[in-house]
Amino acid sequence: MWILLIFVYISSISTRHVGELLCRQCGASITRQSELINITGVDQSQLQYEYDFPLAGKTTKVNVLTNPENQKFHVFGAKTAHLHFHGTPQSHATWYPGYKWTICLCKSCSRHMGWYFEPEKSTAVSEKKSFVGLVLDNVISADYVDTLTKVPDF
Ligand SMILES: *[C@@H]1O[C@H](CO)[C@@H](O)[C@H](O)[C@H]1NC(C)=O
Ligand SMILES: [Zn+2]
Fold this sequence. Notes:
Blueprint: H1 2-15, E1 20-23, E2 29-32, E3 36-37, E4 47-55, E5 58-66, E6 72-78, E7 83-90, E8 99-106, E9 112-119, E10 131-135, E11 139-141, H2 142-149
Antiparallel strand pairs: 1-2, 1-11, 3-6, 4-5, 5-6, 6-10, 7-8, 8-9, 9-10
The site of zinc ion (ZN) has 8 residues, from loops.
């Protein structure tokens, strides 16, 4: 029984989290490499600058943006993420014209992770797709965490 439990535990460590992005505060899974997208359609007047960043093994565009309270965020995109919606969709001061936003929190620790962006009008001809904008500082790559916990090879 114990041997079985240990085996299950070890195999769950070694196969978990490859290419995953975790909440930096509590380690909950937020999204994974295959979900990453380059966000397009940013409001250029609100964009401070953008850069490419290697994230979970994929080059991803990061938009540096400020909100009306003058807080600065480094935002990258994902098609989906495991998050908890907080409040109702808002249209004012949106960074992505044509999209309204909803604040998203980590499901486990409630830390602010980013925003869910959905098209203002969902018409049949609309090419706009909803996406999640995540705050780069609030996630950590699981592959990177694994390098910190590995026993060195001599
Ligand atoms: C984002 O665009 C860069 C080129 O600027 C490309 O190399 C990269 O693969 C793209 N990333 C995603 C997640 O589509
Ligand atoms: Zn968390």
